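Can anyone check this?
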Amino acid sequence: AQSGLVVMVPPALWSVAEKTLKQDTLSGGETNVLRDAAELIVNPHLSDATKWYIFKTDTFIRPFIFQVRDPVKLLQVGVKEGEDTDYARFMRKSMFFGVEARYNVGYGL
């Protein structure tokens, strides 16, 4: 289908899905706005006769959502103002650094 939509159904729902996606008019005489909106695939491995599955196959969908809660920060540990010069601390190798950040990851579509 041009829309990139694929409808996957079990064999028990094939005729309903076929009518939904292929007929010009519905039983009440209304125009079928879903006509040719998606490609129909019948999957014999689907066991639940009440569920339809629809996939968007022509675009990139992100399976995970990445969130930055706190951006990366550079931290200095054990360095006090007025103690020594930066040069003296560096030469004694008494400067310690660390990195702190917080992230969150969740499921997308």
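Reply from J.R.: I decoded it. The first helix runs from residue 14 to 22.
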